[in-house]
Amino acid sequence: MGTLHDIGRRVDLPLLGATFLLSVVGLAAVYSAAAGGEIFFKQLLWVGLGWVALMLAVAVPYRATVKISWALYVLALAALALLAAKAVSQGGVAQRWLSLGPFRFQPSEFAKIATVLTLALVLDVFRRLESLPHFILPVAVAAAPAALIAVEPDLGTAAVFVPLLFACLYWARAPVVYLLLLLSPFAAFFVSFKLVAFLIFLGVVVVVALVARARWWERAFVVGANVVAGAATPVLWGLLKEYQRARILSFLSPTADPHGAGYSIIQAKIALGSGRLFGKGFLEGSQVHCQFVPAGHTDFVLSAWGEEWGFAGCLLVVALFAVVVFRSFLIAYRAGDRRGGILAFGLGTLFFTQFVVNAAMAVGLIPVTGLPLPFMSYGGSATISSFIAVGLILNVKLRRERVAEQMRLLGY
């Protein structure tokens, strides 16, 4: 009994259990949406490799992994730079996978984890966050992979680095006023589609900048960045690919092109709604099996699941992701050191962001982004990277007491 209690105390069983159940739910959803066959067996292989990757991520002390995060980060940037160069050389044709012999992988999925690891190192070594210059390095760490991914082009994945950055900065105890000021240019970009909304927002930014405890040039820089972000909106709109503009326009008005750009959103919502309370039953999803819902085993896997298992099945998925996120944040709160806290909180934010974005896309609240649903969407890179993230979070709790004792002896 003592041994079982010790295992339960050091290993986060709720997080591990929720991960296991999500992987089972994901396999069931992929099997149904893809009608079994090769796609299902590939996903089964990815899940198996994912569990191996999780165990490896747990086996190596997380502080040792954080120490070599720069090497992992540089490798990720090199892979992303190669894809970006290929995209530019081929006239903007999407490039998201690299091939290593018979294997293909998506560098952006592993770049997310490498970025969180590197931010945990940077924000632990450079602890001062008292003025804008102190934010240059962490912002650059997140901006570099995001920019390269945007060139692929993959704007949905690139946008994920924004909440990752701010989550890590928040956990590193950056002043909230500075976080709001740094976040404001991103918000200015979206509200600038309406001139009146942008002017009101800019007025709010000016007021916050004036009352903030910041130097005059910091205030001027933030206000100027918001003006530039607002002015850049029409320019960036013109740089978007035709399919990207179509996705945004179809989100604003799906019925304007029901057989074209708005088709995916309309069919995904029909599939979810037709599931009602308890769904049509396993393998009985007509919308998905008749291929009315495109990408039912990838982007819209939640729609495929909801059609067959209904609101109750979707509620189960929400509850399981809630457990993953809550336990990640709790482990961050109880971590033995600053690095472990930032690492667990950043990875928990990654799970939260990807779930919210994918679910919102499935119900038509945001444009189609192509962001996978962790543990459920088909794909090797996304699946394995999700298991690695859970392994790192479990690692933080597993070594919490030992790390806390080491920090105490070092005087932290």
Multimeric state: single chain
Outline type: globular
Average pLDDT score: 82
Strand-and-helix sequence, N→C? HHHHHEEHHHHHHHHHHHHH
User: So how many helices?
Assistant: 18
Q: What structural class is derived from the secondary structure elements? A: mainly alpha
Number of domains: 1
Classify the beta-strand content into a percent band: under 5%
Note the main attributes of this structure.
412 residues, mainly alpha, single chain, 18 helices, globular
What does this protein structure show overall?
- The chain is an all-alpha fold.
- The protein has one domain.
- It has 18 helices and 2 strands.
- The protein has helices at 2-10, 13-33, 37-59, 62-67, 69-89, 107-125, 136-151, 155-171, 176-191, 195-211, 216-239, 242-252, 263-274, 286-289, 301-333, 338-362, 380-398, 400-409; strands at 98-100, 103-105.
- Strands 1-2 form a two-stranded antiparallel ribbon.
- Strand 1 and strand 2 form a beta hairpin.
- The chain is globular, with a radius of gyration of 22 Å.
- The model has no long low-confidence stretch (mean pLDDT 82).
SSE arrangement:
Elements lengths: L1 H9 L2 H21 L3 H23 L2 H6 L1 H21 L8 E3 L2 E3 L1 H19 L10 H16 L3 H17 L4 H16 L3 H17 L4 H24 L2 H11 L10 H12 L11 H4 L11 H33 L4 H25 L17 H19 L1 H10 L3
Antiparallel strand pairs: 1-2
Helix pairs in contact: 2-3, 2-15, 3-17, 5-6, 5-7, 6-7, 6-8, 6-16, 6-17, 7-8, 8-16, 9-10, 9-11, 10-11, 13-15, 15-16, 15-17, 16-17
